[in-house]
Write a structure and sequence with these properties.
Distance between the termini: 120 Å
Largest sheet: 5 strands, parallel
Shape: extended
Strand order of the largest sheet: 2-1-3-4-5
CATH topology of the largest domain: Beta-Lactamase
Radius of gyration: 47 Å
Structural class: alpha+beta
CATH class of the largest domain: Alpha Beta
Mean pLDDT: 83
CATH architecture of the largest domain: 2-Layer Sandwich
Number of helices: 33
Strand content: 25-35%
Length: about 950
């Protein structure tokens, strides 16, 4: 049986072939199908397309968010039934989806009949929920004019007026709020919803909205209010949005309580959540029955939950049990355990045995509803000759009770023969069964009442047709009579962009797109003439107020309006749907283009190995055309058919295979290497139908990989014979690899160095130096800067295997991966022991020269003509009366201290030596001293 085309289903399926097949079969059932290939796309389509009536959601959606997450996001924005479609049957997966929504879960291989039935059931359940929601809206409408607090809000959201009785209900005085933003008293979590409704209200004159939200009182307590707002901005007397609201906190609490009880009583018995005893019975009535039974039978009694925790108050409990055993932690725990086991369901009769806690005689019967265990009715606390003082005292010691008082209380326990007690227990069992039957009848009665309420609600909605049309329809509703618009609801104004006043002032045809007017007039006249073959549902285009084209689907029926024949037209804005259909056609065209031009080879094979489809790209790689293969067995494509057997076995073992290497034949007899990514595809009944996937020619890549291996072998040859040592560390300074040359420099084998902590490689001083450098250079700022080059150069002292040490230059560079993140540290080092020895010898030679300079009685100086600096010994300074370093050590200072008459002579003499490249020079000249005098010096340079 087909369905109306205006039922739109969003199919969320990442497998394009499965999605296309499912779309076609569902369209045969009359549904309009929109396909989304990912969770993100589904969220976007759902947000943009308000015409979606149901979503079929796959669980696994490849990369990106999965089905449950996509459903959560969509349901966070709108109410729409979601039916999960998956191959998963694990309880945890099903439970996860039920926590999101409970409109259905269909296993993929269940067949199209089950899927369509599930869709119908989901619509029925959603419609029931919608009726409940509409009931609440109508209840608000009936009391919309009974205002407790009245206010006026300007179009910019500022409060212009508040009635004085606001102080009585909410504590404010008008002056507290007038002149402030209307959202000042709105709960933060409700602000977005209130803003959305306010914005929706502004464009349409006289439009009324009613909302419920949490209102902040002056004492900062929130109360639930119901607010009705009417757009009276163009009414000169009001010039704003007229609002009235009143406190509905008690009603909200009552609704929640009623809803909870109705849900509990009408919940399917297969629901995972257990039925609660309190939802099925009046506890006060049950308490009275329990008390009277206990009194008549002279036994203690209590009703507990299946785990032993009490539901009712104890009846006729003995002092031993209530006043002693249950007052101890261990005794109470044992009592709960015993109560739980006594109440276990048993169709053969009551359970009678000694209590696991005090050892007295107890009995229990379960109370069940439709096979669900909801409570235990327990009796007992009687004794006979089987209990002894010794056993009771032993138990008193176990639970830590006072032995004397325990024994005294035991003797107070009434005694009863086992035969008599079993008769009482049987009576209990019969009564418990009666309660079970009563509970089931309560649930059936609740369901009957609920169904009757729904029927009554439908009748009431029918009687309030025009009010329902006006306030609750999501479609544009227009009544046309004699070519004029007699009635239009606010949604019509939203669709067209015109105000209701503008709509009433113009003929109906003015709103129809010129190219569609002839068709619309023809259908209109045919319908007035009563032609039975005329289709009441068709598509046409409207002209919006801004000149935009709006696609609409109209469902028109004949009615009587004020004594004349008219048409009642239900308009649905399908602009997004038409755009989506065009996008789908474009997508299908794009898919075909991709298939015909894809670089990789796409193929499909049935379960018998016959090639169903193969892309034209096969010719580019093999020289064969698709016609050479389609209809042939796939073995003709393989260089080694046995290779396919292993490939197919692995595929059916895992369901899919990625990057599997195969060797295939070409038309000219060559062999190519291909990488296969393949999975099993399914038919419309979700049964395996064949294999599909892609092949990529990786022959050249394999050659490159072989070349890379050869390059690595060459690199290994170099590292094995180089004199320098190379090693690689991770970012925690753990050595991961070291070149074989380390055996020559340090005497260790590679095996001996494996796992050796880095602090064992260096002397303590060098290790501390290295850690200090690492702390300075490997900072988070530098490491996180993808453009920063981090290089560390150190001279470190290493240990050899024999315990000796040597110095080495260490050059460390931080390596980064393709994203610029630090991936390791590459280090190179070489032995600089000989250089360090030479430097040490030079340093000692310079030290001896310094000692000699200080020991001589002559003044000595070393003049650096390149830098202009002079290095003098202390004797030189003493000769001219200065302390060491009291004057600047520069050539300019030396020249300024020469007697003026001698300066040219001394400078010329110096320049002459340099010009003639003589190694020795001798001259006499005068130098100025600190006290202003001059001394003669003999200068040998």
């Amino acid at each position: 049986m087909s369905h109306k085309k205006d039922i739109t289903i969003l199919l969320v399926e990442d497998e394009a072939i499965i999605a296309l097949a499912s779309k076609k079969i569902l369209e045969k059932y009359g549904y309009n199908i929109i396909v989304a290939a990912s969770g993100e796309e589904a969220c976007d389509i759902s947000a943009d397309n308000s015409d979606i009536d149901l979503i079929l959601m796959d669980i696994d959606l490849g990369n990106g968010i999965d089905g449950p997450e996509a459903a959560t996001r969509i349901l966070g924005r709108r109410a729409v039934p979601v039916v999960f479609l998956s191959s998963h049957t694990e309880p945890e997966i099903v439970e996860k989806t039920e926590q999101i929504t409970s409109y259905g879960y269909v296993v993929k291989n269940s067949g199209i009949t089950v899927l369509v039935a599930s869709i119908k059931m989901a619509f029925k359940l959603f419609e029931a929920n919608r009726q409940i929601f509409e009931s609440e809206i109508k209840q608000k409408a009936m009391i919309s004019n009974i205002s407790d607090v009245i206010g006026i809000i300007s179009s910019d959201g500022i409060l212009k007026y508040k009635s004085t009785n606001i102080e009585k209900w909410f504590g404010w005085i008008p002056g507290d709020l007038v002149g402030k933003d209307y959202k000042t008293t709105v709960h933060p979590e409700d602000t977005e919803m209130i803003e959305r409704e306010f914005v929706k209200l502004l464009p349409v004159d006289d439009l009324t909205v009613t909302v419920e939200f949490r209102y902040r009182c002056k004492n900062d307590i929130y109360k639930w209010v119901e607010l009705t707002a009417v757009n009276c901005i163009n009414n000169p007397a009001i010039n704003g949005v007229l609002i009235n609201y009143h406190n509905i906190t008690e009603r909200k609490q009552a609704e929640e309580a009623i809803e909870k009880r109705i849900i509990a009583l009408t919940r399917p018995l297969v629901h995972d959540t257990a039925v609660d005893f309190n939802d099925l019975f009046n506890i006060d009535d049950i308490q009275l029955i329990q008390d009277q039974f206990a009194s008549a039978a002279k036994v203690a009694s209590i009703i507990t939950r299946p785990d032993g925790t009490p539901i009712t108050r104890p009846s006729n409990f003995t002092r031993l049990c209530e006043g002693i055993v249950r007052k101890t932690e261990k005794g109470l725990c044992n009592c709960y355990k015993s109560d739980a086991e006594l109440g276990a369901p048993d169709s053969s009769g009551p359970i009678v045995r000694h209590c696991l806690s005090g050892g007295l005689w107890d009995a229990g019967a379960s109370i069940t509803v439709g096979g669900h265990h909801i409570a235990n009715w327990l009796i007992g606390q009687v004794r006979d000759e089987t209990q002894t003082d010794e056993s009771m005292l032993a138990y008193a010691r176990i639970i830590g009770a006072d032995e004397s008082d325990f024994l005294k209380a035991f003797h107070e326990v009434p005694s009863m023969s086992q035969d008599q007690f079993r008769k009482v227990a049987q009576s209990l069992y019969t009564l418990a069964n009666q309660l079970s039957n009563a509970a089931f009848q309560n649930m059936e009665q609740a369901r009957f009442i609920n169904e009757r309420k729904e029927i009554e609600e439908q009748l009431r909605k029918s009687e309030e047709k025009y009010r329902s049309i006006l306030e609750n329809s999501s479609q544009g509703i227009v009544v046309a009579c004699d070519g004029e618009i007699k009635f239009a609801n606010p949604v019509s104004a939203v669709i067209s962009g015109y105000t209701l006043k503008e709509i009433y002032s113009r003929p109906f045809m003015d709103f129809v797109y010129p190219d569609d007017r002839e068709m619309v007039i023809k259908n209109y006249l045919a319908r007035l003439a009563g032609e039975s073959d005329n289709n009441p549902v068709y598509k046409f285009r409207l002209l919006g107020k801004s000149g935009n084209i709006i696609w609409c689907e109209v469902n028109a029926v004949l009615i009587e309006w004020e004594g004349s024949v008219a048409t009642l037209n239900f308009l649905t804005n399908i602009t997004d749907q038409m755009n989506a259909e065009k996008a789908l056609r474009d997508s299908e065209s794009k898919y075909r283009s991709i298939f015909e031009n894809i670089q990789d080879i796409f193929y499909q094979i049935d379960l018998n190995g016959i090639i169903i489809e193969i892309s034209p790209s096969i010719e580019r790689y093999t020289g064969f055309t698709p016609d050479n293969f389609i209809g042939q067995h796939v073995d003709i494509f393989y260089s080694n058919p046995e290779e396919r057997i292993e490939f197919v076995n692995k595929l059916f073992e895992k369901g899919e295979v990625e990057n599997y290497e195969l060797h295939l034949k070409t038309a000219d007899g060559r062999m190519i290497t291909a990488s296969a990514s393949t999975h099993i595809f399914y038919d419309l009944e979700m049964k395996p139908a064949g294999i599909e996937g892609t092949l990529r020619d990786i022959t050249e890549r394999k050659k490159m990989e072989e070349a890379l291996l050869q390059s690595e072998r060459n690199l290994r040859l170099i590292t094995d014979n180089m004199h320098e040592t190379v090693w690689l560390m991770d970012m925690n300074l753990n050595v991961k690899w070291i070149s074989p040359s380390v055996e020559k420099t340090r005497g260790y084998t590679l095996e001996e160095l494996a796992g050796l902590p880095f602090d064992r490689h260096l002397t303590p001083e060098s290790f501390a130096l290295m850690m200090q450098a690492a702390a300075e250079e490997l900072t988070p700022e530098k490491l996180n800067d993808v453009h920063a080059e981090i290089v560390i150069f150190l001279e470190l002292e290493f240990y050899r295997k024999d315990g000796s040490t040597f110095w080495g230059d260490t050059f460390a560079t931080v390596l980064r991966d393709s994203e610029g993140k630090p991936s390791g540290i590459l280090c190179t080092g070489r032995d600089i022991s000989e250089r360090k020895a030479a430097v040490k010898a030079l340093s000692e030679s310079e030290k001896r020269l310094s000692y000699a300079m200080e020991a001589t009685s002559d003044g000595l100086y070393d003049m650096n003509l390149a830098t202009g600096e002079i290095d003098c010994n202390s004797r030189y300074y003493n000769m001219v009366g200065y302390e060491l370093y009291e004057i600047p050590p520069s050539i300019d200072t030396w020249a300024s201290m020469i007697y003026p008459d001698d300066k040219d002579y001394a400078v010329d003499k110096l320049m002459g030596m340099l010009a003639s490249k003589d190694e020795f020079m001798e001259m006499e000249y005068r130098i100025k001293t600190k006290n202003g005098g001059f001394i003669w010096v003999l200068d040998r340079s």
